[in-house]
Structures
1.
Amino acid sequence: MVTASVASATSAGGLAGASVQVRAVSHAFGDAGQALPVLDDVTFDVPAGETVALLGPSGCGKSTLLRLIAGLSAPQAGRIGVDQVRVVGPDPSRLLVFQDPLLLPWRTVEANVAYGLEARKIGDGQERVRQALRMVGLAAFAAAYPHELSGGMAQRAAFARVLVNHPRVLLLDEPFGKLDSLTRMTMQEELLALARRHAFTTILVTHDVEEALLLATRVLVFSPRPARIILDVDNGLPFPRLRDDPAFIARRREILIALGHGEEFAR
Amino acid sequence: MSDVAGSAVGAVAPVAVHSVFRPWWPGVASTAVWAVAAAVTGLLPDHGRAPAGQPLVECEVVIAILSALSVLIGQAGWFAPLAYHGRRIAVLGGAVAVWEIVTAKTGWLPLPFFPSPQAVLDVYRVDSGRLAQSVFSSLLILVPGFLLGAVTGFLAGLAMGWSPEARYWGNPVIRLLGPLPPIAWLPVALFVFPTISTASIFLIALATAFPVAVLTASGVTLVDSRLYDVGRTLGASEGFLIRTIVIPATLPHVFVGLFMGLGASFIVLIVAEMLGAKAGLGWYLQWAQGWAAYANLYAALAVMSVLFSGVTMALFAVRRRALRWNRETVEW
Ligand SMILES: Nc1ncnc2c1ncn2[C@@H]1O[C@H](COP(=O)(O)OP(=O)(O)OP(=O)(O)O)[C@@H](O)[C@H]1O
Ligand SMILES: [Mg+2]
């Protein structure tokens, strides 16, 4: 059922993923006098079509990094590129699913999903909107207002609002954090299948080590603020990935130790 | 099939017999109270010279009869909207009876300041033409003035909320001129504008525009800035952001401003009409007072309250439609 809806959603086509370059990016908030450093010399590359997961303690600067890649603000030092072209502002080919759903409360679910197509005057988007809603399981709630949705449904609607635009780079800020564990698994499978079919590039911020290892080809672990990369795990496990695979367990242990949880949970 | 229907009737019937007729008590109370009011009006002797109370008695009897009918149908579902007001209608009858006693029947409240209910009722019979004319000419000032003020206030507030430059120039104007009661401009408006009507329209627009501008501007600054991030990443231009995010997010505040502006407009309207106009409800009040026609005064006040309450309800109906998405919509 899952794969069928994905197949129909992707039949509309779209561009393949773009590569992302993050080079020596540093960023701070506040005035020069009492600046709050958030990112410290972060460098990594994401090849087109790959999925990279970013892990790190709360408040270390992960959301800030995603905002910079999305082009919502400019890094104070370093440069960010997509397909070797410098990012200078937001663009619908690089889309961010925020930590909160941030639906527009005055628009129905359907109209929220259609927002990007409407903004870019892409006519005839109704079928695309319907497909996106079907994909996240909200077809029956197309005419509902956001206040009539549960937290998880709202987050799925936010997902559909982004996917309907066929982005080349998908920036996900803990997109499944608010979902129950079963819905989360469904959405993770959907994301995997989608990423494979569309071949878009994904940068996924998450708190969940297992989620990172299940979805990503590479896992970057950040230090507490200001964020530096303290561990870079090449996660080339074949699909389907199993949580009890010894290689999986070894990587999870390595990451948990890097995050400072070696004693209790890493055994 | 028929078997089932038959057994169903059989099952229901004993219940129907058991539940004997239950009167609708607010209807009973209303019948009694209005009958007493009619008796007081029609049977007690008048004190001094009071207008013949016949039409008032007729009204009271009609209401008493309708109340008596409602005793039978008060429980019906379709009657519910009116039934809701049942106890209020009953108490109103008592108020009319007391009013009749302290004016026409005993003269405890002195004439001409406190006319009897019959005298007020007579105004609607005798002077309805002039009252209708007054309502019409008041609306002819209120509606254009309010709409003009709403539009200019909204646009000014939007500009001030969105553009720092507009805020820089708008703020001192709002700070210094906002606290001035709009009616204080009347002497100025009277010589700037060719007619008292246009002057009044301008003052009402002013009275509406200030609160609307202030609330719109603060509404714009209260919009969650993350929604702009959502819009900008999805490819929205600045104009599209304003149309699809700023304006809808600000609308709840705009309606608060409109509500405040409407209240100020009523004041401006009546005072301007009292001070300079030759028509309108404010002028009617002034005219009635000049002739010591206090019954006309009360009759006009009642019309005014119904009119202004109706206009306010219309505003809230628009608001309810515009803010359907908002779960916290307050009723008025
Ligand atoms: N607009 C801002 N102005 C000032 N400080 C900010 C701003 N945005 C974020 N910060 C600060 O930057 C730091 C990193 O914030 P960020 O949201 O990137 O963390 P995060 O890694 O996403 O955390 P979490 O996992 O809890 O979401 C925090 O200390 C936060 O207080
Ligand atoms: Mg975050």
2.
Amino acid sequence: MEKEEVKKKIYELVEKSTGKKKLKSSDIQKTVSADAGISRDEVKDALRDLVDEGKLIYTYFGGSFVEIPPQQ
Amino acid sequence: MPKKYDTPLLDELEKGPFPSFVTEIKKAAARSDMAADELGQLEKSYRDKRGYWKHGGIVGVRGYGSGVIGRYSSLPDQFPNVANFHTVRINSTSGFFYTSQFLNEMCDIWDKYGSGLTNLHGSTGDLVLLGTDTANLEAIFAEFSSRGWDLGGSGSAMRTPSCCVGPARCEWSCIDTLDINYAITQEWQDEMHRPAFPYKFKFKTAGCAVDCIASIARADCSIIGTWKGNIAVDQAEVANYAKKGMNITEEIVNMCPSKCMSYDGKELKITDADCIRCMHCIAKMTKALKPTGEKGASILVGSKAPFVIGATLSWVIVPFIKMEPPYDEFKDLIRKMWEFWDEYGKNRERIGELIIRKGMREFLEFIGVEPQPQQVKEPRRDPFFFWTEADLQK
Ligand code: HEM
Ligand code: HEM
Ligand code: SF4
Ligand code: SF4
């Protein structure tokens, strides 16, 4: 699967959970790798790109989560 | 000129023979508005008997999920200069060796962008910079990374590993703690900067059981140097210690936890098969006693401060493992442990808590380590040696 497609899947998953359940990096890795039939490393790699680009950020609320940055 | 607060309660902490953090914060407060307000807020906390810091949130530098810990005052109107008072963790060096040049530069950077207050080193081991504003974080990161430094771990990640000075300054070290610490840091950069664990994970490496880094009490994985051979005894040096006034029976033989030593006034004997390698005798009679044979480490897991269950000390998982570069056997073992934790761990559950919840039996089966007597943490613990059907057929 193309990396851009994995990134899209990750972003959609985070978007869908926003306001309902905070997702951990491992939640995203497990869900997306199972759904797309790819390795967790591929998901990790795509997630890393999204964070480097600033499209997703890490937050900390008693544990580390991945979320969409707040609108400034 | 920073605001000056009356601090009668904090002033009490300047009395007595020890260095005082209050004195140090006051020095910083003479020049820094941030340090001044931090002093004011702290005095109020002491007066009201409650804390006024909020914790967590979304601060950090681009690309990283750890290294910066969000701190906010819950009284920003009263103490505006500490409305943001974030902590920055800088990945410390193995054994905490720095050049004076680096320390000078670090202080200059921190005077420029932060409160000027530092903590060398926090319990995690990082070089801790206390108190800065969200707007300064990227600039601070750029200053440090351009000099070859990096942020440390925080959140649900591998934390900055730390180790004792080991072979750099200590003849007792059975392993190269500094190299092991560096290898862990380099191998698991991703695990440190991009939090993906159920909770924090700390490595601490001690060269021997004296454990100067307190790994047994404060690491999810404690790596403690040990040896396989006998303790070589130099009887002439034993006689020297006796001549200089050491009471060998009282101070050495009777203090041996496994009662495997004897002394008849002339000769010190050790039943090596019963020695648990606690280091007591060697640390007391360095010139007379020396470990021999193969050197390596014991791998322990599970210590932590009180949280879900009370405080725990690490216990043995692997009694002896060779620790030589590139440490493949060790790294594979750790990866298996993390896999187990990733599979079954709940949010905010440390690996030790998970093992206690699931049982040693399942953990050992998962990571592929044989049950061994050294893994029993204390007498009368419910045994975890069960035979499976496959074992019975053997
Ligand atoms: C009034 C009489 C007894 C009482 C109240 C009693 C109570 C108990 C209790 C509370 C335990 C659990 C201990 C623990 O795991 O912390 C236990 C374990 C056990 N008891 Fe008794 N017991 C009695 C008599 C006996 C007798 C007469 C025998 C054998 C002839 C026996 C054999 C065992 C065995 C084999 C275990 C399990 C040990 C283990 O798995 O660690 N008990 N008993
Ligand atoms: C003659 C009377 C009794 C005998 C022989 C007896 C024996 C035992 C045995 C063999 C166990 C299981 C140990 C194990 O395998 O872990 C046990 C557990 C237990 N018993 Fe009894 N028992 C008796 C009376 C009582 C009474 C009256 C109570 C409570 C009022 C009680 C409370 C418990 C509890 C709470 C456990 C579980 C302990 C644990 O899991 O650590 N027992 N008992
Ligand atoms: S833990 Fe052992 S090897 Fe390390 S500094 Fe202390 S005494 Fe030396
Ligand atoms: S190392 Fe500890 S257990 Fe071994 S002989 Fe010395 S005091 Fe006894």
